[in-house]
Amino acid sequence: MFAKILVANRGEIALRVIRACREMGIRSVAVHSTADADAMHVRMADEAICIGPPPAADSYLSVPNIISACEITGAEAIHPGYGFLSENANFVQVVEDHGITFIGPSSAHIRVMGDKIQAKETMKALGVPVVPGSEGGVPDMEAARRVAAAIGYPVLVKATAGGGGRGMKVARSPDDLEIAFRTARAEARAAFGNDEVYIEKYLGRPRHIEIQVFGDGRGGAVHLGERDCSLQRRHQKIFEEAPGPVVDTPTRARIGQVCAEAVARIAYAGAGTIEFLHEDGAFSFIEMNTRLQVEHPVTEAVFGVDLVREQIRVAAGLGLSFTQDDLQLHGHAIEVRINAERLPDFVPCPGRVKVFHAPGGLGVRIDSALYGGYAIPPYYDSLVGKLIVHGRDRTEALARLNRALGEIIIDGVDTTLPLFRDLLAQPEIQAGAYDIHWLEQWLARRPR
Q1: Nearest CA to 292 among 81, 92, 105?
Q2: End-to-end CA distance of the chain
Q3: Torsion, Cα of 227, 230, 232, 234 (10° steps)
Q4: Is residue 19 annotated as part of the catalytic site, yes or no?
Q5: pLDDT reported for residue 163
Q6: pLDDT in tens, 202-249
Q7: Strands across the sheet with 27-33, in order?
Q8: Which pTM was predicted?
Q9: Do 51 and 168 share a domain, yes or no?
Q10: What is the mean pLDDT of residues 2-24?
Q11: CA 19, CA 46: separation in Å to the nearest integer?
Q12: How many CA atoms lie within 13 A of 346 on its CB side?
């Protein structure tokens, strides 16, 4: 087992990894920019080292600075958290070349799954159902027209690189295709430095269902059920639950086994998430995230496992501490992402937190790096906390979430907490009857 792990991240996910290290008797190293010198993850780690000025490009995304921090502190392994360098194959290759263990999959697997076309082709070959679409990238408008006509409108033009909704445009008819194609390519070029796009069928009312998988790197793998992440704004998830309200036990076992067998066949190591659009009972693969997900706590709640601990075990060569037969789903869990944003326009709202009071009680967990007096810096993502609740069933989980939202206090900055209080009053949320378009349509109808 490792003696010391460097956490190449910040905020609540850095705290999450540091806590797991402490429980395992492993010393942790926090890295930070000058803007994060007073951050909670810096205070909680066994050691801390500054890696640069506030801009992420000069600190959290600086590969030489992170490698140097490992060498200075003697850290044997790096946990990337999520975001930043967590899915950067070149970074992982550098880590491997320096004899440092990357707590995650190999650079080869990250590279394959980071290219959406290659990922789709790989998953199709492994028996995973995929969305109908182009075979590879679409080079020009003439090819785009042929592909779209063959698939049938509406279609989605998507960047092969990146994510987060950038480089994605819908064409509902042949008249829409040219502007969607050109706009998607321009966005992809600006955001990712790669303007290659592909085309796939656009589903009208799908849900976003993702399967949590875990490989031991030696040809063994398990699945830990699904999460429903359909409540999204601009392709960004804000509300996640496990299990999904529309997935029954036989379906869960079937699609989970397909996903586990797929990652086992490629000897995948560590945590991964295979994401699908689900409509009319059919699953269609869209991408694989080769890292821990923001919403991993809901899976931990219903299965009673520590996914970060398992990541560390697998990276250390110890394998998983459980088998598929050991994994039994218990109850229902929901997570809401709390952002420092001003409603109704979701404008980032950095500033000083005057008071922070975390909710408590049975089945309530808060993952946050906030504290009273903390100044939220303007340089990074606006996520400041995740509220996770667990109950015996979905009804109890919703009631527990409603109670916890009434207890939490974040004073001094605007947050998205009022949004969740309003959402819980909606009949569609109470019934679990929503799709990936529901939230934006509901927001558009709300009085401003």
Answers
A1: 81
A2: 54
A3: 110
A4: no
A5: 65
A6: 988 999 999 999 999 999 999 999 999 999 998 899 999 999 999 999
A7: 47-52, 27-33, 4-7, 77-79, 101-102
A8: 0.91
A9: no
A10: 98
A11: 11
A12: 13
Q: Are residues 236 and 366 in the same domain?
A: yes
Report whether 377 contacts 287 (CB < 8 A).
Answer: no
Whether 327 maps to a domain, the answer reads yes
SS3 state of residue 415: coil
Nearest to 88 by CA among 291, 366, 318: 291
Assigned token pair, 126: 């492994």
Catalytic residue among 27, 227, 252, 291: 291
List strand residue ranges (DSSP E) for 34-178, in order: 47-52, 77-79, 101-102, 155-159, 168-171
Domain boundary among 201, 217, 251: 201
* Residues 6+ positions from 317 with CB-CB distance below 8 Å: none
Q: Number of folded domains in the chain?
A: 3
Q: In this structure, are 164 and 304 located in the same domain?
A: no
Asked whether residue 248 falls in the same domain as residue 337, the answer is: yes
List, in order, residues 6 or more apart from 448 with CB less than 8 Å away: 344
Residues 221 and 343 in one domain: yes
> What CATH number is associated with residue 24?
3.40.50.20
Last residue of a domain, one of 154, 180, 201: 201
What whole-number distance in Å separates Cα of residue 397 and Cα of residue 165? 29
**What does the pLDDT read at residue 162?**
64
Residue type for position 45: A
The number of angstroms, rounded, from the C-alpha of 159 to the middle of its chain's C-alpha atoms is 18
Asked, for residue 435, whether it belongs to a domain, the answer is yes
Residue 413 clears pLDDT 80, i.e. is over it: yes
Amino acid at 378: P
Residue range of the domain that includes 62: 4-95
Does 228 lie in the same domain as 326? yes
Q: What is the rounded CA–CA span in Å between residue 376 and residue 277?
A: 35
Residue 164 has pLDDT above 80, yes or no: no
